[in-house]
Amino acid sequence: MAHTPFKLSVLIMTLGVGLAQAQTTPLEFKFASSAPPTSPWAKQIDRTAAQVAEETKGAVKITPFYGSQLGSENDAIAQISRGRIDMGSFTIAAVALQVPELSLVNLPLFFESQAQRDCVLDNHVQKHAVEALAKKNLVFINWGEVGSVHLPGKKAYATPADVKGIKVGVVVNKTTTEFWRAMGANPIPTNVAEATSSSQTGLIDTYPTPFAFYVPSGLNKVLPTMTKLPLWESAGVTLINKGVYDKMPADLRASFDAGARKTPVSTLRAEIRGVDTALTAAHKQAGGTVVEATPEQRAEWAKNLPPVWAAIAKDVGPDGEKFLALMDAGKKACPK
């Protein structure tokens, strides 16, 4: 059918409006997190969302869902791998359900300092993590920080003898399960969002956690005695579904990357560690108890652990021993 000049001009205008609307409608990415909405991690995620919006000039909108609204960590990361959720931040324990050897990053008492652990993650194992996650349809954005993991309870747990027979809430993976069994404790599968309620009902006696979760979640009201060791420095990872990431045009993807990685990992770590220190003081001021493990007590925890580390690495899968070798090499190369 022929178009009159008037009809043709209307058609062109209509198409122009449609294209303009398409160009101004932002991509909206659902972001999954088990962090409480008032936690320091939520503040970091909110900042990242703002930075992505700024760098992409509003073309990408990140909408966070806190407190496991999109499912437990284990469920949400599987949904991101399948493309049903766009992106999220997770503890390394949950990420290890997709890439088991990554759980070794949290080997108890493996690193001799925070600086050494940071160096190993950034310079010696990140390449492996990026490549292994890509095979699971996941794009590594950056490391995050969960914090120094201590032991809360209704009493102190200063030595391995104190935890024999108790119920320890864990995100299930080979590292957490085998370590607590080696200590004579009973690991109980516990979602992050259920840590406080499970402690209230007596399903678990402790939930190893940093102060940045312990206080904002209210767990400190239920388990008011925190034994500071720490057992390990818990890492986190921010991920996006590979299909979602690859579908972005190259220029938009570059802007997205600039926003998502705008805050250096060193800053993310420093913020969480600073919060841990502040919340330790806040917990004490509110009437809570903090028990500092002595060097001798820490030595008891560390005693005879190398064979446990080796057994865990062998048991996590075919890449476990290879990954532990990377960590060992990094540990030797990085300062204490």
Description:
It is built from 16 helices and eight strands. It has 336 residues and is of the alpha/beta class. The strands form two sheets. Strands 1, 2, 3, 4, 7 and 8 form a six-stranded mixed beta sheet that branches. It has a two-stranded parallel sheet with strand order 5-6. Strand 5, helix 7 (174-182) and strand 6 form a beta-alpha-beta unit. The longest helix has 21 residues, at 114-134. Mean pLDDT is 91; it is low at 10-22.
In short:
51% of the residues lie in helices and 18% in strands.
Low-pLDDT windows of residues:
10-22
Return the average pLDDT rounded to an integer: 91
* Proportion of strand residues: 15-25%
- Going by helix content, strand content and strand pairing, the class is alpha/beta
Q: Got a strand count? A: 8
Q: Fraction of residues in helices?
A: 40-55%
Number of helices: 16
User: Major sheet: size, sense and barrel closure?
Assistant: 6 strands, mixed
End-to-end distance: 78 Å
Question: Which labels suit this protein?
Answer:
single chain, 336 residues, alpha/beta, 16 helices, 51% helix, 18% strand
Write the SSE topology.
Elements: H1 5-24, E1 27-32, H2 40-55, E2 60-65, H3 73-82, E3 87-91, H4 92-95, H5 114-134, E4 138-153, H6 160-163, E5 167-170, H7 174-182, E6 186-189, H8 195-201, H9 211-214, H10 219-222, E7 225-241, H11 242-247, H12 250-260, H13 265-285, E8 289-292, H14 295-302, H15 305-315, H16 320-333
Parallel strand pairs: 1-2, 1-3, 5-6, 7-8
Antiparallel strand pairs: 3-7, 4-7
Helix pairs in contact: 2-12, 5-16, 7-15, 15-16
